[in-house]
Design a protein that fits this description.
Length: 423
């Protein structure tokens, strides 16, 4: 969440930057500032009152010893009255602090200056592109028909077992899934990321720590009895490894990677764009997470983008990178770059990765700091990226590599699949 110090330093700038995310924050920011004034006034009066209590309390014993019982009784009565006032002041202060926190939790991160203005995905900026566009002709099959033709994925069986959005992978389809997971994890490890195997369910504190709560509560699957949430991405448990932690400066940067199943309700998603693997409720993804010193986080972001680019290039997919505009960014992000690959049969771009810098926004919620050489503690910056999400990668691989003989497997993936064609 935003820091109170940043809000108090320049509230007008915070409101202006929030507006670039199509978020009207003026009323909430003004309320926070007023509540902070109330909190600080209560704190000052409480400190003064406690000092008075201490002084009177020290006099009571002296008065009793000197035989001035009536004065001692008066002092006791004053102390009792002042303690009641202290309790009231503490209640006022605690109430203001709680309300400030609730407001801060519901204010998104502010976009950095690199973020383009805009209100929707139509305003996103293409910053880089590569790969060769396949020319398959008008008779090319979409991946859901290819999956049925080669018996790779059974969407109807998934509906029977669970519901729409929970496909069953079979035979070479299942092996392709496992091959991609291993391929992505091996590449991440070679790039210096430490592999983590996290839980797939988290508590509410973890959801608040990375910003999924309260913003995306309705999009997460919730286990009511235990108050656990199924993770929407491995970012949540991996980043929460560092919740309430003070790191030493020489421990940074931290680079973690993790495979997990991901669970998303995707409420309100309908239509042709969600057919097949385009949008699922359960899917597989390999995530990369970094914890950085603030001055290094944007260099780390560039490094993460370059790394994800190597993955789509090795898979021989046509790709481009989008810098998201303010109106299309997530609640927690300061800047986001999306990777999209081209789906030749559907003739559309499919998002396969988001790489984001959250600056100190998540770190402030997590209370994740580092101690520098000067012994002072400072908030870290957190970053994460998909490297990569499998469903749309599989969709593009199946569609773009279809031939009269079968579906060709990219050369880099063959050692992982054990086959070079699906026929």
């Amino acid at each position: 969440m935003l820091t109170l110090a940043a809000i108090k330093e320049n509230p007008e700038d915070i409101v202006r930057r929030l507006a670039r995310k199509q978020f009207d924050g003026k009323e909430m920011i003004d309320k926070i500032i007023e509540l902070d004034k109330t909190r600080r006034a209560s704190q000052a009066e409480l400190d003064s009152t406690l000092a008075r209590v201490k002084t009177l309390s020290s006099q009571i014993g002296i008065l009793i010893k000197s035989g001035e019982k009536s004065k001692a009784d008066e002092a006791k009565a004053s102390v009792a009255s002042l303690k009641e006032k202290c309790a009231s002041l503490e209640e006022s202060m605690t109430g203001a602090e709680k309300e400030i926190t609730e407001l801060l939790l519901n204010i998104p991160n502010t976009p950095c200056d690199l973020v383009p203005d805009g209100t929707s995905a139509a305003d996103n900026l293409v910053v880089k592109e590569g790969g060769c566009m396949p020319d398959l002709g008008d008779d090319a099959l979409p991946h859901w028909e290819l999956a049925k033709k080669y018996d790779l994925i059974d969407f109807e069986l998934g509906v029977k077992i669970t519901g729409a959005g929970f496909p069953v992978y079979k035979g070479k389809g299942a092996r392709l899934q496992r091959a991609l997971i291993d391929f992505f994890l091996d590449n991440a490890r070679e790039a210096g990321y430490l592999e983590i195997q996290p839980p797939y369910v988290v508590n509410a504190a973890s959801g608040y720590g990375t910003g999924q709560l309260p913003d995306k509560e309705g999009q997460m699957y919730h286990c009511n009895e235990d108050d656990f949430y199924l993770i929407p991405t491995a970012e949540v448990p991996v980043t929460n490894l560092y919740r309430d932690v003070i790191l030493q400066e020489d421990e940074l940067p931290i680079k973690n990677t993790a495979y997990s199943a991901c669970f998303r309700r995707e409420a309100g998603s309908y239509g042709k764009d969600v057919r097949g693997l385009n949008r699922l409720h359960q899917f597989d993804k390999v995530e990369i997470v970094r914890i950085e010193k603030p001055e290094n986080s944007y260099a780390a972001l560039d490094e993460m983008i370059a790394y994800v680019q190597t993955l789509v290039e090795k898979l021989e997919l046509p790709w481009h990178i989008l810098r998201l505009c303010g109106g299309d960014m997530s609640f927690t992000s300061a800047i986001t770059y999306d990777f999209e690959v081209f789906s030749a049969a559907q003739k559309r771009w499919l998002e396969v990765s988001s790489v984001s810098n959250f600056e100190s926004y998540q770190a402030n919620r997590l209370k994740c700091r580092y101690r520098g050489a000067d012994k002072k503690t400072r908030l870290v910056h957190t970053l994460n990226g998909s490297a990569l999400a499998l469903p749309r990668i599989v969709a593009a691989l199946l569609e773009n590599n279809q031939t009269p003989q079968g579906i060709r497997i990219p050369k880099a993936l063959v050692p992982y699949t054990g086959f070079d064609i699906i026929d």
